Amino acid sequence: MASREYGQFCGLARAMEMVGERWSMLIIRNLLTGPQRFTDLHKGLPAIPTNILSARLKQLEETGLATRRALPHPDRAVVYELTDYGRDLEPALIALGRWGARTLTEPRPGELVTAESVAMSFRTTYRPEAALGVTVGYEVRMGDFTLRLQITDGTLTVGIGRHPAPDLVIERLTGHPIRELMSGSRTPDEVLHDGSVRIEGDPALLDRFAEMFRF
Length: 215
Hints:
Blueprint: H1 11-19, H2 24-31, E1 36-37, H3 38-44, H4 50-62, E2 66-70, E3 78-82, H5 84-87, H6 90-100, H7 115-125, E4 136-141, E5 146-152, E6 155-160, E7 168-172, H8 177-183, H9 188-193, E8 197-201, H10 204-212
Parallel strand pairs: 4-7
Antiparallel strand pairs: 1-3, 2-3, 4-5, 5-6, 7-8
Helix pairs in contact: 6-7
């Protein structure tokens, strides 16, 4: 029996055999934002040794959770992406991320805030009951990276990069106003009036943002 096997005829045990190795869930988290090259994955997880990243990607391929695809000319690059089977893990990652977020206050020394980690925070804080029938696009600029949030008839999709046609652009200028909006510790009026956020579009959509994304 391989060391990764638990010897239990149980769905949870089988799931842990496939994704329970260190780093596996974070690789899946990052791939939820879309296909990524090996270098993209390593940039989003800079603490992972490259040999471990290679091993985890191989395991995800072997279990049918991820696949490799060659991009057409002129890119000539290979990207990794989740299969439909792999994407089925999204609700579990959201629930686990929401549970873990209860312990978050400030980043610990050496902890990084990455585009993928913030994208996950939008997934875990999204309140679909506050977005019933809503269709709106947000572009959130966080300094080092930009995220696009599209809500279509209440269904959220999150990606890295600019939104092609945002209804509202939210740009962080100072501090942590996006997190403060999502925690409810500050209101949209407060972050606008103190200059920590700049917006392009209808200010009412910032109020709607604070309603739909809440810890």
